[in-house]
Amino acid sequence: MSTAPTTVSDTDRIERSIVIKAPRERVWRALSNAEEFGTWFGANLKSQTFAPGQRVRGPITIPGYEHIFFDVVIERIEPQSLLSYRWHPHAVDPAVDYTKEQPTLVTFTLKDAPGKGTLLTVVESGFDNVPPHRRLQAFRMNSHGWEAQMDNIARHVGT
Amino acid sequence: MSARRGKTKRAGRRDAGLSAIVQSSEALASVFAALGDPTRLKLVAVLCAGGAFSIAQLTANTEISRQGVTKHLQVLADAGMVRDVKRGRERLWQLEPGQIEEAKRTLEVIGKEWEVALGKLKAFAEL
Lengths: 159, 127
Prior knowledge:
The complex is a heterodimer of chains A (159) and B (127). Chain A is an alpha+beta fold and 159 residues long.
């Protein structure tokens, strides 16, 4: 019964994929160039660089969230195939020192998809190490940021 | 569906929208609090194998005392994650999957946000 210590629990990670109709080098640039990343993600990362060990920080540009900072430490960069960083999900309270908490790890991977497309996968893991009260906060933040999708959320939460 | 115990609230869970989220927050907070301890996480992992376990089975090959395990199981029970069943004179513990499913659902919400982010990246890269 205690034979599987390495099993990752179902509550620890999120994985999502999407096929992008663009060549791998284009998707890689959108991911690995900090300014381009900021453009689609919604953060001002002008004149910053993604490099292993580098901290990258910039204000969120999504209306209503401008007081929040995109704040990550880049972990690995493998050109055209992998980019990963650590961050504290929804670290939104300026009064809280999140550096004492275990960050989650976000990993983007690229693969060729049929028709000159690119399969992009994102995995965020380490949620089991996020303190309980912060998990709930992350959940609240997400749901508030998702008013347009409220019906979907209600279906997830309210059944 | 078995009866829920302790502080778990069911009122309003079927309401649509924000109220459903607010209503379920308290129950979720207790689930995450219950999971936020390595011993209890381990107990849940063991119970995930399915079936009912005795305290003796749950403490086998561990350093934890019977008393300690009972205390942890009670916390999990209060969060609605496990329940005890009587078999003869023995008290066994088993998983109550409903609350754990709910914890998974919160991750689905965060996953949804990633879907939106990936959608934005796709639109950006396909320009």
